[in-house]
């Protein structure tokens, strides 16, 4: 029953998300068709939608939808609905009240003077935008290209709503509707419930299920919330810069594609996925982990784990680097850090990934070369990380480093879980080699090559093994390229000046990889992992 209730919660949220996305797509198409290009491009930037990825269906547009709704209301009630009204002074007072969060997202509490047969009035303008309309006249009507990105972007301006947008609840959805649905399902045994897996796949395999579209690409249908009011135009501009680091493209790294690292994957699912799906269990002492540190030799899969979170966990993923939050202007670095965590709370559930965190949070007071601005930025980062522990929003900080002993002790304390990402073992190396060389090698030679490579690559990282397999797969292609250039790869000056180049249709496919190719590649490929740092990693692991 608990699993079914969780499935209903996900379905209700997915349906509301799809409705909001459909409305915005219809509005975008209407704005472009009517010639409001600047407004449409601003809406695309704030929502994360693009008409080059998703567009209105054939014969579907906003004008037709409103016309059919008016005709339906006229047939049913004998009169057309009133869709808009004049704004009174009392409404301006009501708009100054703080927004509240309802089951369908943030909205403004306001008195409604429209009949029940009318559409709800969507308030998307404020006094600020009414003043802007006098300074920025509308673009002339006509056809416009929705893919045009050459128009001037106005950074630092206020968002579409002039009120401070509220931060959503920890669960991100209202619990009232799912509870009612689950109760109805309990009372009626004939009700069919569809269960969804962690990755969003339909586990019931039932045609026509309400969750049959759960396997759609989440990133193509992603809808970003509009920018909140951060208090000043300067902070708005900084927020726009941070917002560009939200991962909108699909990294396409599922959990199954990562070989080994079971402990790290289980802990990340426990820290990110489970609190989002079952928030009723993660309270009090069982509050979810707020920070995890991944450390180990280069190329062992720390960044791959972060990409898997971005792919699988359905959270807003902030991919932050040093260039994002380090500024040459005095005081801007601290403001960028503050805005980053404010946006993470606003877009909760969210994940902040800090790669190479030792470059940002090394030990304070380490020598006279540390600048004052660096100390201030570190202090602000520590304050914001400490605030995550008291925050009810689901904001998760994931940090990765190759040199954990360089981190400040206060940072290590705030990153509650510290996971050593080790070099792959013998079995993991065999699985990696099999996955990568299977398309290039015959089935009869592959087991021998697996054993040969796995034994010879002790101390190699996953990245080193990938480079080795690439070198092995390149050898048949090199032989083919020599054949394509003629003279069997003769490197004489005459051969390079007048090669007998074969056409594409004349080239045979590259031959399979041989054991000789494997032996030659093993002789020329060396690992990049730090053999002399193994003791330091183990010492750090034993201490922390």
From TrEMBL:
Residue ranges of the region described as Disordered: 95-188, 485-513
Domain spans labelled AAA+ ATPase: 288-425
PANTHER family: AAA DOMAIN-CONTAINING, KATANIN P60 ATPASE-CONTAINING SUBUNIT A-LIKE 2
SUPFAM superfamilies: P-loop containing nucleoside triphosphate hydrolases
InterPro entries: AAA+_ATPase (IPR003593), AAA_lid_3 (IPR041569), ATPase_AAA_core (IPR003959), ATPase_AAA_CS (IPR003960), LisH (IPR006594), MT-severing_AAA_ATPase (IPR050304), P-loop_NTPase (IPR027417)
GO cellular component: microtubule; spindle pole
Phylogenetic lineage: Eukaryota, Viridiplantae, Streptophyta, Charophyceae, Charales
Compartment annotation: Cytoplasm, Cytoskeleton, Spindle pole
Record's keyword terms, sorted: ATP-binding, Cytoplasm, Cytoskeleton, Isomerase, Microtubule, Nucleotide-binding
Comp. bias (Polar residues): 114-124, 142-163, 171-188
Pfam families: AAA, AAA_lid_3
Gene3D superfamilies, A to Z: 1.10.8.60, P-loop containing nucleotide triphosphate hydrolases
Top-level taxon of origin: Eukaryota
Protein name, entry field: AAA+ ATPase domain-containing protein
